[in-house]
Amino acid sequence: MRILRFTFILCLLATISYGQAEQEKKLKPKRTDNYIHMRGFRAGFDVTRPFQDLWTKGNRYGTEVSVDMELWPNWFPVFETGYDAMRIKTNYIDYKSNGNYSRVGFDYNFLQAENKEDKDIFFVGFRYSFALSRQQVDYYLIDSYWGLENGRFGNQNYFAHWGEFMIGIKGEILHNFYMGWTIRGKVNFNHKELELPPVYFIPGYGKAEKGFNLDFTYSVYYNLPWDFRKSVKAKE
Amino acid sequence: MKRLFYLILLLTIVTACKEVFEAPPQALLQASFYHSTTKRTMSPIVTVMGIGSDSLLYNEEIASSVLLPLAKTDTSHFMIWIDSKSDSISFIYTTTQKYASMESGFYYEYKLRSVGFSQNRIDSVEIKDSLVTTKWNENIKIYIHPLSVSNN
């Protein structure tokens, strides 16, 4: 996670310094690719979510899909939604949490297209994210000199929301097929305060006690080549 | 190829290290021994056993203080042998359940209300800090009589 964090900070610094260099020149040539590059919708599947268990403490599994489209030249409204589950089972506790989450936001493409067929993008994006989730402790054990004490906490439902900012790429590897990654920082806005136990896991976000989480995604996409603009024009 | 090897190595280390879970912490009452007249610390030979338990907490150990685990119920009783003279000591307290983390679990903390004791070797007991937490510190001072010449 530390390597990811450093990579993210480096990329962020590079982006900032790039922006400053542009300001110094004070000559910002207008984009020549001010047109819609990608027609229709693009549906995606995040291939990293089922393997989160590899780098998360406890057993975490999930699935996530997304849809985006180029509504205005280089501006891509995005909707992402998924399911996330966490289980921690040790000698002292058996904890379960699962729930659904969604994100809405947009990506802005910085990469200038070299030709009409060039649909690769390098983007920064922002998301508003929220999750509805539940957790329970099936058993806990307190081992002391006087013997074993055990108990459980029943189902607790909670809502949480957070913001995400990211950089990433999406490249067309085959006609209408894309692959891409994002590195994203997640800032916790708020979650329901529970008495005991407190909220431990937020689907789509991670550990609730952390105010900031860093994440990496890798997705595959298919562009449904349905040009809704043409359809609208045809109706008119 | 080398990069792939390092990536696999890194993943192996990450997956090998990630499943280490610690036991929850324990709040223990610390009782220190003092001379009843000079008020200086003492290190007698101590044996301690919880009443209702069949195992010894301390077995003829030279100690200036002992750490006592309290039961979940609001009272705990101990037999304590100080230089082979026995006393009983009882603690009355309130118990609060605490959350350590979801990786390690839960534990109890206590607030001491009162201490009762017999006076064979113990002269008096003073509550210094009534909160028994996982940050072990001196909770009570046990003032003990000096050994009389006849006992030597």
Short description:
The complex is a heterodimer of chains A (236) and B (152). With 236 residues, chain A is mainly beta.
How would a textbook summarize the main sheet of chain B? 6 strands, antiparallel
Question: Structural class per helix/strand content of chain A?
Answer: mainly beta
Q: Number of domains in the coordinates of chain B?
A: 1
Could you tell me which chain pair has the largest interface and how many residues each side has? A-B, 24 and 27 residues
Tally of extended strands of chain B?
A: 10
Give the N-terminus to C-terminus distance of chain A in angstroms: 52 Å
Total DSSP E strands of chain A: 10
The CATH level-2 architecture of chain A is identified as: Beta Barrel
Q: Gyration radius of chain B, to the nearest Å?
A: 22 Å
Which CATH top level class of chain A fits? Mainly Beta
The end-to-end distance of chain B, rounded to whole angstroms, is 78 Å
Major sheet of chain A: size, sense and barrel closure?
Answer: 8 strands, antiparallel, barrel
Helicity of chain B, as a percent range: 10-25%
Secondary-structure element pattern of chain B, one letter each: HEEEEEEEEEE
